Amino acid sequence: MTAEIHHSPSGKLDRKGFEQLFRQYFPPLMAFAKKILTDEDDAREVVHRVFINLWEKRDEIDATTSLRSYLFTSVHNRSLNMVRDRKKFSSEEMPDVAGEVDVGAQIEAMELEEKIREAITALPEKCRQVFELNRFEGLKYSEIAAQLNISIKTVENQMSRALRILREKLLKYLTLLLWLVLYALN
Known about the structure:
Elements: H1 15-37, H2 40-56, H3 68-86, H4 97-100, H5 103-121, H6 125-135, H7 141-148, H8 152-170, H9 174-185
Helix pairs in contact: 1-2, 1-3, 2-3, 5-8, 5-9, 6-8, 7-8
């Protein structure tokens, strides 16, 4: 969901563009900060501070460039600073956040997750229903057939069709997916 952000003719971030950025990135930034801080209120405070800082520096920022990386890096750094400053954990309990969280990998994982969600949403309705019932709800083909009042063969065909469509749409992300899986295993 990398929609073009509205900006003034001079390329600076205007009020409408800022509101658009806030609506688009607040939820994923909250989730990202919460992974580091584990506390929703702390995460909200960090994300709000990042957006306040962005608004205060709007004249210095070129809104025609991608602000996603800037936002995630800022949330990451402020979250780590909050962990350090508040000394919430004893030295034995302090997670090695800097070593465990790779901002680039987190951003890429979120982008990939978004692309997968978009591809699933774009599936034809029957394909999507069958796919979601099987993959997300764990239903067997016979259970899906009974629930949707269709034959097992139709379920098999719809599932094959869904997988083929998803494979085609997500092929260019295969390298990224493999990298993320290998990164997670290390």
